[in-house]
Amino acid sequence: MRAIAELLKKREGTVFSLAPQDSVFEALRRLADHDVGAMMVLDNGRLVGVFSERDYTRKIALAGKSSRDTLVKDIMTANVVTVSPQTDTRDCMALMSQKKIRHLPVMEGNKVLGMISIRDIMNDIIADHELTISFLQHYISG
Predict the structure, then answer these.
(1) CA distance 31 to 27
(2) Digits of tens for pLDDT over the chain (142 positions)?
(3) Taking the CA of residue 70 as centre, how many other CA atoms within 13 Å lie in the half-sphere pointing to its CB?
(4) pTM for the whole thing?
């Protein structure tokens, strides 16, 4: 397994974020624009939460609230689980499974480096398995 820092290199400098005072409607628009399921919520560069499609469905749609009248800060997940760039993908998978989450912000101290998703982790695991299979096939065939 590789360190998360290697996965983040593929997105060099890409950090999608929202502000706490953004409307949920605007947040949904930005999720769609970037084709992502969650975004970090930053207040003056400091991570204060994560906003996800799950937050919207459970706290707005099912509650009968208006996405235009509700702010991100009112429904975001504030108790954010984070990882460091040195965390390996296997540990991230275990953490995501244990906490029942799909996105992990990557932090170095107080600095936000990016966010990885369960999809990123699965793609890495699949690539690792395919490489192992290739090595084994080559070894068997001589």
Answers:
(1) 6
(2) 688 888 888 776 678 999 999 999 999 999 999 999 999 999 999 999 999 999 999 999 899 999 999 999 999 999 999 999 999 998 999 999 999 999 999 999 999 999 999 998 988 888 888 888 888 888 888 7
(3) 19
(4) 0.85
Find the radius of gyration of the CA atoms of the chain.
18
Question: What is the distance between the alpha carbons of residues 4 and 1, in angstroms, rounded to a whole number?
Answer: 9
Which segments within 21-127 are labelled E, that is strand? 38-43, 46-52, 103-108, 111-117
Q: Residue ranges of the domains in the chain?
A: 4-141
64, 89 in Cβ contact below 8 A?
no
Cα three-residue angle 116-121-127, rounded to 5 degrees: 135
Q: How far apart, in whole angstroms, are the C-alpha atoms of residue 74 and residue 76?
A: 6
Assigned CATH for 4-141: 3.10.580.10
